[in-house]
Structure formats: structure tokens, C-alpha cells
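Review session, final week

We close the course with one last complete record, chosen because it touches almost every idea we covered. It is Exonuclease domain-containing protein, a protein from Sphingomonas arantia with 252 residues. Go through it on your own first, then we will talk.
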Amino acid sequence: MTAPGTFIRVVDLETTGSRPPAHAVCEIGWQDVVLGDDGIWQIGGADGAHLVNPGRLIPPVTQAVHHIIDEDVADAPYWPDIAPTVLRSNAVALAAHRASFEQRFCTPALSGNAAWICTWKCALRLWPGSPSFSNQVLRYWRKPEGLDRDRGLPVHRAFPDAYVTAHHLRDMLRTTPVETLLEWSALPGLLPRVPAGPLRGTAWTLIDAEALARFAGDRDEDVRYSAQFEQRRRTGETEAMVVASPDQSELF
């Protein structure tokens, strides 16, 4: 049971590319989600953003995404110096949308071995009817209460993205214990529908056993796990998904 007054810190990174050590962080943003004395999770606590000197040039194709240029970060602190000041916060956990990306750069050494919640993985289980599971699609599909449109813009900057993710996390926490979100986040993503190929958008419950067996051997970890989960469900080895599977006509 989480004690009142505790918090989870949602973080978002903008980087020079997808993976270290070839690429590095150029901005970090954060927004806390706080458990009040009334037992209700709210947006609050600390928030902010820091530019980070990545120690290398930012490729033009990446500048075009977040619009952070080399001149912006020339005098900014380096990642090993700024990261612990944000990541080591005595939070119950850190959280991010598709947290596996942030975890590439927010190593255990920098975060103090913090636990992580992945709001993307949790959204797959809690809101399987969403037309997509990106941070921004969830924002406009769900319309979280209290989300200030201007504070959530521009997209692909660290604080606005963390702010939007925090609203998703807040709503998750109001229905689901922290411990469950952490458990789901440690597993592969449980996709509600086939994500690609001729059967794209089809719920797993509607796929025949032969096709399901092929997906169960897929190279993609999330696809493989989702197909195997459905196989176990059909044999009674595991529970059904949290919410009924959506109609196959919905797009992934």
C-alpha cells in the first residue's frame, strides 16, 4: 500500500538519436504525480526541464523532430551531471511512455536503481479500445481531465511530453495499484490487436489457432508475448485481458 504524500516522477527525454553510446540526451523534462492525504493521485509536486549538452552534434533529422539545435545546448550541463538531480528524487518509481527508451539513457547508476512504470504498456491493458497507444493519440482520444493544452505543447519537447504522460499515469493510478502497474511494466507489451501485416487490427481472440501459433514465434517480443497470452487464455491458463478485446474494425 502506497503511503500518502508519496509521488511518482514522470520523465521524458529528447535525444540526438535512438541509442547510446552513439547518441545522447539533449533535454530532460519531468512532472510529478502525487498521492494526496485523501488517497487520490493528482498532478502536482515538482516539474521542469533542463537542456543537456550531448557532447556531440545533433543531426539535422533529429533537430527537425524536437527543434533543439547545437547552439541551444552548447553551455548546458552534461548528462552525468544533471541526470541524478532529476532521477534520484525519492519517488516511488520513475515513469515514462515507452519507458524502455528512457531506460537506455537513464541507467540504474544514474537513477539509483529506480523502478519504472511504462505508461504505454499499462495503456495497452487498461484502454485496449484506443485507436493507437502513442502519448498524443491517448491525449486526444481520452481527453484527460485538467490537461492544459498550452502546457502540453509543443509536442516532442521534454516537459510538455512528460506533462501529458503524467495525466495518463494519474488516471491509471486512480483505478490500478502502483504494484500492478510495475508488474505490467516489467513484462512485454500485451497488444490488444495484431499490429502489422494482413491481419493488422484484428483482435487476438478472432485469430485461428494456426495463425496464432505463427505469431507466437514472432521475432517481436510484444507480438510473441501477446499471441502466447491468447494461447494460454484459450486453455484456461491465464486470465482474460483487463477489458474486453475491441472489435477488429478498430485500427491499431
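Two points worth writing down before the exam:
The radius of gyration is 19 Å.
DSSP finds eleven helices and five strands in the chain.
Good luck, everyone.
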